[in-house]
Amino acid sequence: MPDYGNPLRFGVFPAPDADRLDETMATVRAAEHGGLDLVGIQDHPYQRRHLDAWALMATILARTERVSVFPDVANLPLRPPAVMAETAASLDVLSGGRFELGLGAGAFRQAVSAMGGPSRTPPEAAGALEEAVEVIRLMWWQRSSVRYDGRHYRLAGVKPGPPPAHDIGIWLGVGGPRMLAAAGRLADGWVPSSAYFPPEKLPAMAERIDAAAREAGRDPAAVRRIYNVMGTVDGSGAGSFQGPAHAWVEEFTRLAVEVGMDTFVFAPDQGGAAQVERFAAEIAPAVRGEVARLRGSG
């Protein structure tokens, strides 16, 4: 797999639990002060312990100055895409261009249905996600009105706006063959998580994205690769991301130059802000330096 040469970025994936808000905000502050780039917030409205993702993202943007924020990933079945597009654009304007849009098809069908959302089969969910990408982009166009007539979503002469402050990326949190191909054709980024897709699964998945991008006449480098990694620095638990900082540096460097992953979003299994401080101080700069060295050597 090629290294597409995209700039490396690093972020955090804090827990959005209402009873851990102080810990969440301490993690965000550690990311902001440590020079990290992103904060990802999971969106599970049916999870009673979680704060609403969009309210929390707005709060984080209001309390930070530099870091960007994205839903990791937004729950499409419970969030109409036209309304989501306006909310995303509004947050981007209010934050001075610090919002990106992660989007998912909604994996927990029973929970979505229990909250009043549509109960879609996997093919239906995939089709709705593909349509949603098109609807959202139409809602960001500076046109007097837009129309869309899909199986799952319709726009009937709606007036789009406000426009985002920058070109918001649409990143798909997907793993199946059809949706990986859709990411290659349609999306600006791909967001797998190590809990579901450990490092050894990434090359084959990335190849499917690349093939679909080329078939659509796109440069595969246009699809950013954002990897949610769950683990503990100096940890000894199960999973791909444990052990000392140098082991993390080696693995991230390998994933960057051999698989094309360019963004690493850290979800500490334990330790919260202290783990993020180590991630920012010991891992992110070392990976940047090593990848720059390898790129410079050809």
UniProtKB/TrEMBL annotation:
It is an enzyme of class 1 (oxidoreductase). Keywords: Oxidoreductase. Residues 16-230 form the Luciferase-like domain. This is Phthiodiolone/phenolphthiodiolone dimycocerosates ketoreductase. Its EC number is 1.2.-.-. It comes from Streptomonospora litoralis. One of its GO terms (molecular function) is oxidoreductase activity, acting on paired donors, with incorporation or reduction of molecular oxygen. CDD domains: Tetrahydromethanopterin_reductase. The keyword Isomerase does not apply.
